[in-house]
Design goal:
The chain contains 13 helices and 21 strands. The protein is α/β, with parallel strands linked by helices. It has a 5-stranded mixed β-barrel with strand order 1-2-3-4-5. A 5-stranded parallel sheet has the order 7-14-8-9-10. This is Pyridine nucleotide-disulfide oxidoreductase.
Length: 453
């Protein structure tokens, strides 16, 4: 049995862990990175998450036909696989080329608070670390629905990304972000898509006008959304469900299970290290991302926080500050964290919704405009994506931007401007009167914030 002593042990090759490993490795620290699968070097984002899904979305948006295009779909899957293969190799090399950094491929489990055993193809390796970081991410959750789990037609987003044959009929279980992204994407390739959402509406956390606009866009794209749908069973190609007590069925060539994700912690032996977890399996951490063992940190999806790659990146900054800095940085420093649903056009939001702001008793001014009626954003028409809407919520007394919802072309870029303004106290009036390039989507703020009422 091989034994390694390290300054830092990272379990999981995700964004937070790999960035921390690279940074400390370049500083001369002895670092061991553990990843259970060679197909996951670089983490969820580049392999089965953000990068491949957005690659597939982009390819769908480039199609110029309303008819099903299986060949274009297959080509997109293959091009996406080549992209992720290249990125995976680059991520492995990023660490493997640093002296003093070892990458071990195998399953890791704790023996005690400072010791991890890694089961590799070449045998077990015992690794002890002064500091240990757990960043094992999350995986799709399977519901307890009769006939679903062992059905060969049922897949998660991971399997869908490597499915080279376009399904003629796709049924998506779940109207959350993953479900809607895949629904819009596959409709773009010409599949008949049905979304079964258990709640009374999709995007329940958004304001009603924003959620309705998003639903209308999905309908226009050919997606059938069934709300208040409770899936009762799956029988081969038939999905059985109920709506308000009435039974119904829908046929599927493929069934996408998109009903949330849960932390990957079951086989880590956390109890051996005295690391406390929550009921959902996520690891309890304080604002500095320390677990119940002060030398063990948890970053990314596994700590129960927002499941975004860029949050994991910020997690690394907090841990780095604890290990090699002043130790003052914490999750309490975070504010105005944006997020995006990559439908077409994408929906991006930051801060409070109008509903949340009013429920908090705030006196607000609101601007809400359809993109198609905004003369200041010809960019949307140029790229043939004039659908959607833009909405801003502003404190009536201070002129502080409280939140924004941008359902529009390039919103995933534009929302960062809003978030930056919110973090640094730039008022709505200042953002309204800025000088922006033309034609761009950012110049929409000239008109949108000028319409505050």
């Amino acid at each position: 049995m091989t034994t390694i002593e390290a300054d830092l042990v990272v379990i999981g090759f995700g964004k937070g862990g790999k960035t921390l490993a690279a940074t400390l490795g370049k500083q001369g620290r002895r670092v061991v990175m553990v990843e259970r699968s060679a197909l996951m070097y670089g983490g969820t984002c580049i392999n089965i998450g953000c990068v491949p899904t957005k690659s597939m979305v982009f390819a769908a948006e480039e199609l110029n036909t309303d008819a099903p295009d299986p060949a274009a779909y297959t080509a997109a899957v293959q091009a996406t696989a080549a992209l992720t293969t290249d990125l995976r190799a680059q991520n492995f090399a990023m660490l493997d080329t640093i002296p003093g950094v070892d990458v071990l491929t195998g399953a890791a489990s704790f023996v005690d608070p400072h010791t991890v055993v890694v089961r590799t193809d070449d045998g077990e390796v015992t690794v002890t670390g002064r500091t240990i970081v757990v960043g094992t991410g999350s995986e799709p959750t399977w519901p307890d629905v009769p006939g679903l789990r062992d059905n060969p037609r049922a897949v998660t987003s991971t399997e869908m990304l490597s499915t080279e044959d376009l399904p003629r009929r796709l049924v998506v279980l779940g109207g959350g972000y993953v479900g809607l992204e895949f629904a819009a994407m596959y409709a773009g390739y010409g599949a008949e898509v049905t979304v079964l959402e258990r709640h009374h509406a999709i995007l329940g956390r958004e304001d009603d006008d924003v959620a309705t606009c998003a639903a209308d866009l999905l309908t226009e794209a050919g997606v059938t959304v069934v709300t208040s749908a409770s899936v009762t069973a799956v029988d081969g190609a038939t999905v059985h469900y109920e709506v308000d007590g009435s039974a119904a069925t829908v046929a599927a060539d493929l069934i996408l299970v998109a009903l949330g994700r849960h932390p990957v912690t079951a086989d880590l032996g956390l109890s051996n290290a005295g690391i406390v977890t929550r009921a959902d399996g996520s690891i309890e951490v304080d604002e500095y991302l320390r677990t119940s063992q002060p030398h063990v940190f948890a970053v990314g999806d596994v700590n129960g926080g927002p499941q975004f790659t860029y949050v994991s990146l910020d997690d690394h900054r907090i841990v780095l500050d604890q290990v090699a800095g002043s130790g003052s940085r914490s999750t309490a420093d975070r504010r105005a964290v944006p997020y995006t649903l990559f439908m077409t056009p994408p929906l991006s939001r930051v801060g409070l919704t109008e509903r949340e702001a009013r429920a908090a008793g705030l006196d607000v001014r609101v601007a809400s405009l359809p993109v198609a009626k905004m003369a200041t954003v010809p960019r949307a028409r140029i790229v043939h994506q004039a659908g959607g809407m833009m909405k801003a919520v502003v404190d009536a007394e201070t002129d502080e931007i409280l939140g924004a919802a941008l359902l529009s072309y390039d919103s995933h870029e534009v929302i960062n401007t809003v978030a930056l303004a919110m973090r640094h106290g730039i008022t709505a009036s200042a953002l309204r009167d800025e000088i922006y390039t033309h034609p761009s989507m950012t110049e929409a703020f000239n008109q949108l914030l000028g319409a505050l009422a």
